[in-house]
Every structure is written in C-alpha cells, then in structure tokens.
Amino acid sequence: MSYGKIEYNANGKPMCEICGKYYDRVLPHARQKHNISEKEYKIQFGFDRIKGICSKQSAEKSRLKVFENFF
User: Fold this and answer.
1) Number of neighbouring beta carbons within 10 Å of residue 67
2) CA distances in angstroms from 46 to 1, 4, 5, 68, listed in the order given
3) Alpha carbon distance 33, 31 (integer Å)
4) How many CB atoms within 10 Å of residue 38?
C-alpha cells in the first residue's frame, strides 16, 4: 500500500485498501462491505476526493452510458 496511490492488478482493477481484493468499483464495495463512506475512505487512504476509484473498463462503460442518456 502506498498512501494516495491506487494499486491496480493485471486486469486493471483497483485494489480495496481495507481487504486487499480487487474490484471494478472500489467505493461502492467499501461502502457496502466495510461500512465506510466514500469520503472517509478517500481521506483515510489519501485519495483525491473528487475522482472515482474504478477500472478503466468500468469508467468507459459509465462514460458511454452518460453519452447515451445525453443525446
């Protein structure tokens, strides 16, 4: 663990700093399984409070969904 740095596995999934497992979206996992808010998680581990913590595939999927709903 490196404070403020997101660690990714070979598949591009970020690691949960609490349990050490990899997920497409860490923040919903942390909220549901570890009962910690997104804000608390980011502050505790030194992450940017504005950016999400997810895989590139998940981010792209969300981005495309926004464009679908926008146009």
Assistant:
1) 8
2) 11, 4, 8, 33
3) 6
4) 16
Kindly state the tokens that stand for 48: 């940017």
**Cα–chain-centroid distance for residue 16?**
8
| Per-run averaged pLDDT (10 residues), the chain, 71 residues | 87 96 96 97 94 92 87 68
CB-CB contact of 56 with 12 (8 Å) = yes
Nearest to 25 by CA among 13, 17, 12: 13
Which residue, among 29, 25, 22, has the nearest Cα to 7 in the 3D structure? 22
pLDDT of residue 31: 97
